[in-house]
Amino acid sequence: MTMNSPDLPEIFRPPINRSMQTLDRSFFRKVVPLAAATVSDPKQLTNVRKELDKSGDMLRLSPIRPLRDDESTPGAKCFILRAGINANEPATWSPTVSRLVEVNLARIRPYDLTLTYDDWTMHNILEAILPEMEDDEKETPAGFAQVGHVAHVNLRTPYLPYKHLIGQVLLDKNPTVTTVINKTFDVGTESVFRTFPYEVLAGPDDLDVLVHESGCEFKFNFGKVYWNSRLGTEHARVFETFEEGEAVCDVMAGVGPFAVPAGKRKVFVRANDLNPDSHASLQDAIKRNKVADFVTASCEDGRDFIRRATIDLANTSRTVRLAPKTKISRNATDEDKKAAQEAAGKSARMLREPTAFSHYVMNLPASAIEFLDAFKGTYHGREAEFAPHTSTKLPLIHLYLFQAKLLTEDAELQEICERISSHIGAEVKLDDPELDIDIRYVRLVAPKKKMFCATFRLPANVAFAGP
């Protein structure tokens, strides 16, 4: 059992003070009357532990340590026993405890277990100081997302009067957190850059963070750019479908969670974000992760970028020289090192950027669907470059979007297809074999709003449409 267990006995729960205005850590000192098995012979500790563990008589309450120094007997140790065992009432002892006493392996004595603020979890403390809510608002606001050293919460209205108490407890109970903030409006409510107004609940107002994802390092100001740590798996799912040497257009790239890891996989990425702060952090990530040979950054409107990047790629593709890694002994002579370098140079291979994108990533779920009209005519006059004339297929579009929750998932998917069709100017159907369509649920962002990723091929009648 853990301190967070819903079945935690009342005896181990912290004192309650629902009128606390300022966090008083000393209030949470509590003495729990228990019993302990004192073992005087250190050679018998292992045997006694096994017996008590097997019988279930030892206190098993994480993170409380059951083995302690016995202050009543110098040099001895004791095992704290489970609640319900009374040292002065043998009738409450189990057969195992009684036998250990009979053979003089242990002595049962009263033990006062002192619990303090440090022993209880964040959930324990919050449940003890926050007011009891109605059933539909009962959930304790202990959930938070962490970005670098910043923890951010979205407090529901009933908890706002206690926001600083909540912030301080979160700060105390999470060693890697130094700043706690509360979002005061939803992402995108006030800014097209998906940033949000916030208030500091605990710690300094320092949102300059360093985060790691997919083997890459990103440095940015969390208050000025968009980042969601919960989407790491989703980012990887998409960029791991990119093949070495392919070209990718990341239209709303943010600080680069798709683009930079893809660059490490030797994928050519032209990345863009309208937010100047995101663009600056993206440039930093490109340099920091040494992917400048494969990833470039732009800062312009997404619709303009789709058209311009597609044309630029056809006319200014790059070539990267890939030399194999060579291991040179520390004891190698200068001649040996030179020979090894020459050999590596001769075996280097060249990777040339294609003239057409294989993927477009559109990660702006609130409005990316509105940019689909930019694809009309993007490959006009270039029909001969694609199937059936060659083996090259038209590019895949990875479109993130929000969708209202409907009665069934089939109804949601159908509505997504209808919305895509309306914006791209061509019928997009789930059963169209030419489109390779795959719509995946990503996460629930609100009780009645879901986030999806719709992947489909650019329809030929859109790609090759005339002016």
Automatic annotation (TrEMBL):
Q: Which organism is it from?
A: Capronia epimyces CBS 606.96
Q: What is its main location?
A: mitochondrion
Annotated SAM-dependent methyltransferase TRM5/TYW2-type domain ranges read: 144-460
Q: What EC number(s) does its UniProt record assign? A: 2.1.1.228
Subunit structure as annotated in this protein's UniProt entry: Monomer.
GO MF terms, alphabetically ordered: tRNA (guanine(37)-N1)-methyltransferase activity
Taxonomic placement:
Eukaryota, Fungi, Dikarya, Ascomycota, Pezizomycotina
Establish whether keyword Methyltransferase is in the entry: yes
Domain of life here?
Eukaryota
Q: What family is it from?
A: Belongs to the class I-like SAM-binding methyltransferase superfamily. TRM5/TYW2 family.
The positions annotated for binding S-adenosyl-L-methionine are: 235, 273-274, 301-302, 363
Name of this chain's protein = tRNA (guanine(37)-N1)-methyltransferase
| One protein family per Pfam | TYW2_N_2
Tell me where in or outside the cell this protein is found: Mitochondrion matrix; Nucleus; Cytoplasm
Catalytic activity, reaction form: guanosine(37) in tRNA + S-adenosyl-L-methionine = N(1)-methylguanosine(37) in tRNA + S-adenosyl-L-homocysteine + H(+)
Function text: Specifically methylates the N1 position of guanosine-37 in various cytoplasmic and mitochondrial tRNAs. Methylation is not dependent on the nature of the nucleoside 5' of the target nucleoside. This is the first step in the biosynthesis of wybutosine (yW), a modified base adjacent to the anticodon of tRNAs and required for accurate decoding.
